[in-house]
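Hmm, what's this shape?
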Amino acid sequence: MQFATVNDVTLHYQEIGGPTGTPTLVFINSLGSDFRIWRDVIVRFVGEVSIMTYDKRGHGLSNIGDTPYTIEDHAEDLIALLDHLGKKDVVLVGLSVGGLIAQAVYKMRPDLVEALVLCDTAAKIGTAEMWQERIDSIEEKGMVELAEATMLRWFTSAYRQKNRDDVAGYRNMLARQPQDGYLGTCMAIRDADYTADAKVITAPTMCIVGLNDVVTTPEHVYELSMHIDGSRYEEISGAGHLPCIEKPQDFAILLKDFLKELKEETSDSAPDGVSVH
Protein backbone atom coordinates (compact mmCIF):
# COMPACT_ATOMS: atom_id res chain seq x y z
CA MET A 1 0.00 0.00 0.00
CA GLN A 2 1.10 3.55 -0.70
CA PHE A 3 0.47 6.61 1.48
CA ALA A 4 1.41 10.28 1.35
CA THR A 5 0.68 13.15 3.72
CA VAL A 6 -0.46 16.35 2.00
CA ASN A 7 -2.43 19.30 3.37
CA ASP A 8 -2.29 17.73 6.85
CA VAL A 9 -4.10 14.54 5.76
CA THR A 10 -2.63 11.17 4.90
CA LEU A 11 -4.00 9.87 1.60
CA HIS A 12 -4.03 6.26 0.48
CA TYR A 13 -3.14 5.96 -3.19
CA GLN A 14 -2.01 3.46 -5.78
CA GLU A 15 0.48 4.21 -8.53
CA ILE A 16 1.17 1.79 -11.38
CA GLY A 17 3.90 2.77 -13.80
CA GLY A 18 3.64 2.52 -17.56
CA PRO A 19 5.90 2.81 -20.58
CA THR A 20 7.90 6.01 -20.89
CA GLY A 21 6.05 8.73 -22.71
CA THR A 22 2.56 7.37 -22.05
CA PRO A 23 -0.11 9.49 -20.35
CA THR A 24 -1.04 9.12 -16.69
CA LEU A 25 -4.67 8.24 -16.00
CA VAL A 26 -5.83 9.56 -12.63
CA PHE A 27 -9.03 7.90 -11.39
CA ILE A 28 -11.19 9.80 -8.87
CA ASN A 29 -13.88 7.74 -7.16
CA SER A 30 -17.46 8.53 -6.24
CA LEU A 31 -19.09 9.48 -2.95
CA GLY A 32 -19.06 6.66 -0.40
CA SER A 33 -16.64 4.43 -2.32
CA ASP A 34 -12.91 3.81 -2.34
CA PHE A 35 -10.57 3.36 -5.27
CA ARG A 36 -11.32 -0.35 -5.60
CA ILE A 37 -14.36 0.54 -7.74
CA TRP A 38 -11.93 1.16 -10.62
CA ARG A 39 -10.24 -2.25 -10.49
CA ASP A 40 -11.89 -3.84 -13.51
CA VAL A 41 -11.14 -0.79 -15.63
CA ILE A 42 -7.57 -0.36 -14.40
CA VAL A 43 -6.56 -3.96 -15.18
CA ARG A 44 -7.36 -3.27 -18.84
CA PHE A 45 -4.74 -0.49 -18.93
CA VAL A 46 -1.86 -1.97 -16.94
CA GLY A 47 1.29 -1.98 -19.07
CA GLU A 48 -0.18 0.47 -21.59
CA VAL A 49 -0.23 3.74 -19.62
CA SER A 50 0.68 5.04 -16.19
CA ILE A 51 -2.11 4.83 -13.62
CA MET A 52 -2.86 6.56 -10.35
CA THR A 53 -5.89 6.35 -8.11
CA TYR A 54 -6.49 7.33 -4.51
CA ASP A 55 -8.96 7.53 -1.65
CA LYS A 56 -10.06 11.14 -1.18
CA ARG A 57 -10.07 12.48 2.37
CA GLY A 58 -12.77 10.95 4.52
CA HIS A 59 -12.93 7.77 2.41
CA GLY A 60 -11.19 4.40 2.34
CA LEU A 61 -7.89 4.34 4.19
CA SER A 62 -7.28 8.10 3.92
CA ASN A 63 -7.55 10.41 6.92
CA ILE A 64 -10.80 12.21 7.61
CA GLY A 65 -9.24 15.61 8.32
CA ASP A 66 -11.28 18.61 9.36
CA THR A 67 -14.92 18.67 8.30
CA PRO A 68 -17.00 19.96 6.61
CA TYR A 69 -15.22 19.96 3.25
CA THR A 70 -15.51 21.88 0.03
CA ILE A 71 -14.87 20.48 -3.42
CA GLU A 72 -11.87 22.80 -3.50
CA ASP A 73 -10.48 21.00 -0.41
CA HIS A 74 -10.67 17.71 -2.29
CA ALA A 75 -9.13 19.31 -5.39
CA GLU A 76 -6.27 20.81 -3.39
CA ASP A 77 -5.53 17.36 -1.94
CA LEU A 78 -5.31 15.83 -5.39
CA ILE A 79 -3.20 18.71 -6.71
CA ALA A 80 -0.80 18.30 -3.78
CA LEU A 81 -0.63 14.54 -4.35
CA LEU A 82 0.09 15.00 -8.06
CA ASP A 83 2.81 17.54 -7.23
CA HIS A 84 4.23 15.17 -4.59
CA LEU A 85 4.46 12.38 -7.18
CA GLY A 86 5.75 14.69 -9.92
CA LYS A 87 2.74 14.10 -12.18
CA LYS A 88 1.97 16.49 -15.02
CA ASP A 89 -0.24 16.47 -18.11
CA VAL A 90 -2.57 13.92 -16.55
CA VAL A 91 -5.91 12.64 -17.81
CA LEU A 92 -8.39 13.04 -14.96
CA VAL A 93 -11.12 10.39 -14.90
CA GLY A 94 -13.68 11.50 -12.34
CA LEU A 95 -16.90 9.70 -11.38
CA SER A 96 -19.82 11.55 -9.73
CA VAL A 97 -18.24 13.78 -7.05
CA GLY A 98 -14.95 12.74 -8.65
CA GLY A 99 -16.13 14.61 -11.73
CA LEU A 100 -16.67 17.74 -9.65
CA ILE A 101 -13.18 17.33 -8.20
CA ALA A 102 -11.76 16.96 -11.71
CA GLN A 103 -13.49 20.18 -12.79
CA ALA A 104 -12.13 21.97 -9.72
CA VAL A 105 -8.57 20.72 -10.36
CA TYR A 106 -8.79 22.01 -13.93
CA LYS A 107 -10.06 25.38 -12.71
CA MET A 108 -7.28 25.70 -10.12
CA ARG A 109 -4.36 24.12 -12.00
CA PRO A 110 -5.08 23.73 -15.72
CA ASP A 111 -1.35 23.25 -16.29
CA LEU A 112 -1.59 19.80 -14.68
CA VAL A 113 -4.42 18.55 -16.90
CA GLU A 114 -4.09 17.23 -20.43
CA ALA A 115 -7.67 16.00 -20.71
CA LEU A 116 -10.84 15.27 -18.72
CA VAL A 117 -13.13 12.25 -18.60
CA LEU A 118 -16.24 13.21 -16.63
CA CYS A 119 -18.38 10.21 -15.72
CA ASP A 120 -21.93 10.19 -14.34
CA THR A 121 -21.51 13.71 -13.04
CA ALA A 122 -22.59 17.28 -13.69
CA ALA A 123 -21.51 20.86 -13.12
CA LYS A 124 -23.97 20.91 -10.22
CA ILE A 125 -25.27 17.67 -8.72
CA GLY A 126 -28.71 17.75 -7.15
CA THR A 127 -30.14 20.53 -5.02
CA ALA A 128 -29.12 21.95 -1.67
CA GLU A 129 -32.41 20.73 -0.21
CA MET A 130 -31.85 17.17 -1.43
CA TRP A 131 -28.37 17.01 0.06
CA GLN A 132 -29.49 18.52 3.35
CA GLU A 133 -32.21 15.88 3.62
CA ARG A 134 -29.59 13.16 3.14
CA ILE A 135 -27.28 14.74 5.68
CA ASP A 136 -30.08 14.98 8.26
CA SER A 137 -31.12 11.38 7.62
CA ILE A 138 -27.59 10.02 8.08
CA GLU A 139 -27.06 12.03 11.26
CA GLU A 140 -30.25 10.46 12.62
CA LYS A 141 -30.05 6.89 11.28
CA GLY A 142 -26.40 6.26 10.37
CA MET A 143 -24.75 4.77 7.28
CA VAL A 144 -26.20 1.26 7.24
CA GLU A 145 -29.73 2.24 6.22
CA LEU A 146 -28.30 4.58 3.57
CA ALA A 147 -26.20 1.77 2.11
CA GLU A 148 -29.21 -0.44 1.42
CA ALA A 149 -31.08 2.28 -0.46
CA THR A 150 -27.97 3.40 -2.32
CA MET A 151 -27.55 0.02 -4.01
CA LEU A 152 -30.80 0.76 -5.87
CA ARG A 153 -29.25 3.95 -7.24
CA TRP A 154 -25.78 2.61 -7.94
CA PHE A 155 -26.75 -0.48 -9.94
CA THR A 156 -29.40 -1.63 -12.39
CA SER A 157 -31.92 -4.23 -11.26
CA ALA A 158 -30.39 -6.75 -13.71
CA TYR A 159 -26.95 -6.34 -12.13
CA ARG A 160 -28.31 -6.58 -8.59
CA GLN A 161 -30.15 -9.82 -9.36
CA LYS A 162 -27.24 -11.44 -11.20
CA ASN A 163 -24.44 -10.32 -8.87
CA ARG A 164 -25.87 -10.56 -5.36
CA ASP A 165 -22.51 -11.34 -3.74
CA ASP A 166 -20.86 -8.34 -5.41
CA VAL A 167 -23.68 -6.03 -4.39
CA ALA A 168 -23.36 -7.24 -0.79
CA GLY A 169 -19.67 -6.36 -0.91
CA TYR A 170 -20.28 -2.89 -2.30
CA ARG A 171 -22.98 -2.36 0.34
CA ASN A 172 -20.39 -3.21 2.99
CA MET A 173 -17.89 -0.81 1.39
CA LEU A 174 -20.34 2.08 1.60
CA ALA A 175 -21.63 1.26 5.08
CA ARG A 176 -18.06 1.14 6.42
CA GLN A 177 -16.97 4.51 5.06
CA PRO A 178 -16.35 7.00 7.89
CA GLN A 179 -19.63 8.80 8.55
CA ASP A 180 -17.90 12.15 9.13
CA GLY A 181 -16.05 11.84 5.82
CA TYR A 182 -19.22 10.93 3.95
CA LEU A 183 -21.17 13.80 5.50
CA GLY A 184 -18.34 16.24 4.87
CA THR A 185 -18.34 15.33 1.19
CA CYS A 186 -22.14 15.57 0.99
CA MET A 187 -21.78 19.14 2.23
CA ALA A 188 -19.12 19.81 -0.39
CA ILE A 189 -21.41 18.57 -3.18
CA ARG A 190 -24.35 20.52 -1.74
CA ASP A 191 -22.44 23.78 -1.99
CA ALA A 192 -20.71 23.21 -5.35
CA ASP A 193 -21.72 24.73 -8.69
CA TYR A 194 -19.24 24.60 -11.57
CA THR A 195 -21.68 25.63 -14.31
CA ALA A 196 -19.83 28.83 -15.17
CA ASP A 197 -16.46 27.08 -14.93
CA ALA A 198 -17.50 24.22 -17.23
CA LYS A 199 -18.24 26.73 -19.97
CA VAL A 200 -14.60 27.83 -20.12
CA ILE A 201 -12.99 24.36 -20.15
CA THR A 202 -10.74 24.07 -23.20
CA ALA A 203 -9.04 20.73 -22.46
CA PRO A 204 -10.23 17.75 -24.54
CA THR A 205 -13.15 16.28 -22.63
CA MET A 206 -15.31 13.18 -22.80
CA CYS A 207 -18.54 12.90 -20.79
CA ILE A 208 -19.77 9.35 -20.07
CA VAL A 209 -23.00 8.19 -18.45
CA GLY A 210 -24.65 4.90 -17.63
CA LEU A 211 -27.87 4.92 -19.64
CA ASN A 212 -29.84 3.76 -16.58
CA ASP A 213 -28.29 6.23 -14.13
CA VAL A 214 -31.04 7.72 -11.96
CA VAL A 215 -28.65 9.91 -9.94
CA THR A 216 -26.85 11.93 -12.61
CA THR A 217 -29.10 11.03 -15.51
CA PRO A 218 -28.15 11.03 -19.19
CA GLU A 219 -29.91 14.39 -19.43
CA HIS A 220 -27.68 15.83 -16.70
CA VAL A 221 -24.48 14.52 -18.27
CA TYR A 222 -25.54 15.63 -21.75
CA GLU A 223 -26.18 19.11 -20.35
CA LEU A 224 -22.65 19.12 -18.91
CA SER A 225 -21.22 18.12 -22.27
CA MET A 226 -23.11 20.97 -23.93
CA HIS A 227 -21.41 23.43 -21.57
CA ILE A 228 -17.95 22.24 -22.67
CA ASP A 229 -17.07 23.30 -26.18
CA GLY A 230 -16.03 20.37 -28.38
CA SER A 231 -16.63 17.71 -25.75
CA ARG A 232 -17.60 14.16 -26.59
CA TYR A 233 -20.74 12.59 -25.08
CA GLU A 234 -21.09 8.82 -24.66
CA GLU A 235 -23.70 6.51 -23.11
CA ILE A 236 -23.11 3.01 -21.74
CA SER A 237 -26.19 0.82 -21.99
CA GLY A 238 -27.09 -1.56 -19.18
CA ALA A 239 -25.32 0.51 -16.53
CA GLY A 240 -26.45 2.69 -13.65
CA HIS A 241 -24.42 5.23 -11.69
CA LEU A 242 -21.21 3.16 -11.61
CA PRO A 243 -20.53 1.91 -15.16
CA CYS A 244 -16.91 1.22 -14.17
CA ILE A 245 -18.32 -1.68 -12.12
CA GLU A 246 -21.27 -2.81 -14.23
CA LYS A 247 -19.68 -2.39 -17.67
CA PRO A 248 -15.90 -2.08 -17.23
CA GLN A 249 -15.10 -3.41 -20.70
CA ASP A 250 -17.41 -0.89 -22.38
CA PHE A 251 -15.96 1.86 -20.20
CA ALA A 252 -12.39 0.85 -21.08
CA ILE A 253 -13.16 0.76 -24.81
CA LEU A 254 -14.47 4.33 -24.70
CA LEU A 255 -11.47 5.48 -22.68
CA LYS A 256 -8.96 3.80 -24.99
CA ASP A 257 -10.63 5.34 -28.02
CA PHE A 258 -10.50 8.76 -26.37
CA LEU A 259 -6.80 8.34 -25.57
CA LYS A 260 -6.15 7.33 -29.17
CA GLU A 261 -7.90 10.46 -30.41
CA LEU A 262 -5.96 12.53 -27.90
CA LYS A 263 -2.64 11.10 -29.11
CA GLU A 264 -3.56 11.75 -32.74
CA GLU A 265 -4.56 15.34 -32.01
CA THR A 266 -1.32 15.92 -30.12
CA SER A 267 0.72 14.43 -32.94
CA ASP A 268 -1.07 16.55 -35.53
CA SER A 269 -0.37 19.73 -33.57
CA ALA A 270 3.33 18.98 -32.97
CA PRO A 271 5.88 21.01 -34.97
CA ASP A 272 7.63 19.22 -37.81
CA GLY A 273 10.55 17.16 -36.59
CA VAL A 274 9.26 16.89 -33.01
CA SER A 275 8.50 13.42 -31.70
CA VAL A 276 5.35 13.21 -29.57
CA HIS A 277 4.61 10.18 -27.35
